[in-house]
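Run log // design_07
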C-alpha cells in the first residue's frame, strides 16, 4: 500500500463521518416540525424493534405539527408509547387513527440545552475524524519501519493526512456553528 493509497482511503472515511454528523444534526430540533425528528424512534412491533418510518406515514401538514398514521391501527398505542419513550419533548395526542405531535416553540433554556447537545455531537465526530487520522498515521509509520517508504514520503503522507483532518474538522465546526445559530435564533 502506497502513501497515495493511504491518503485516498482516509478522505472517504472522514467524509462518511461528516455525513453522519449531518444526519445527526437533522434530528436536533429547531422549533420547526420535520419528519427527521422521529428518525430515532423505534416501536416495539410484535416483539421486534422497528423504525417508526417503516410502519407508519409521517407527515408535516403545518410548520408546528407532525402527524403519524400507523398502517396497522392496532399499533397506535405502541407508536404513541415509543414517541413518549424517545424523550423528544413532544406530547402526542391520538384519535385512534392518527397521532398528532404539536411542536412547541423553544424556550431559552431548551435552546441552550440543544446548542450544548450539538456541541457534544460535534465533538464526538471530531474525535472520530482524529481516530481516522491516527489510524492512517500508524499505517504510514509502519510502512516507514518496514522500509517500504522513505522518511520524506512518510513526512509528506503525514502532512497530507493532517491537511485532510483539518479540512474535515473545519467542516464539522462550520456545520455545528450554523446549527447552533439556527437553534438560538428566535
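design_07 sequence
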Amino acid at each position: 500500500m502506497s502513501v497515495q493509497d493511504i491518503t485516498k482511503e482516509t478522505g472517504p472515511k472522514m467524509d462518511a463521518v461528516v455525513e453522519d454528523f449531518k444526519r445527526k444534526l437533522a434530528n436536533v430540533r429547531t422549533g420547526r416540525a420535520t419528519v427527521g425528528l422521529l428518525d430515532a424512534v423505534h416501536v416495539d412491533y410484535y416483539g421486534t424493534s422497528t423504525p417508526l418510518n417503516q410502519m407508519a406515514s409521517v407527515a408535516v401538514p403545518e410548520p408546528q405539527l407532525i402527524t403519524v398514521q400507523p398502517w396497522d391501527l392496532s399499533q397506535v398505542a405502541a407508536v404513541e408509547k415509543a414517541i413518549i419513550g424517545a424523550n423528544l419533548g413532544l406530547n402526542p395526542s391520538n384519535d385512534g387513527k392518527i397521532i398528532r405531535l404539536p411542536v412547541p416553540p423553544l424556550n431559552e433554556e431548551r435552546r441552550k440545552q440543544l446548542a450544548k447537545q450539538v456541541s457534544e455531537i460535534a465533538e464526538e465526530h471530531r474525535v472520530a475524524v482524529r481516530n481516522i487520522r491516527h489510524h492512517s498515521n500508524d499505517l504510514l509509520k509502519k510502512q516507514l519501519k518496514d522500509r517500504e517508504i522513505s522518511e520524506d514520503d512518510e513526512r509528506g503522507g503525514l502532512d497530507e493526512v493532517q491537511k485532510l483532518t483539518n479540512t474535515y474538522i473545519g467542516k464539522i465546526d462550520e456545520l455545528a456553528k450554523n446549527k447552533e445559530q439556527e437553534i438560538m435564533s428566535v
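Strands lie at 42-45, 48-51, 56-62, 65-70, 93-94, 99-102.
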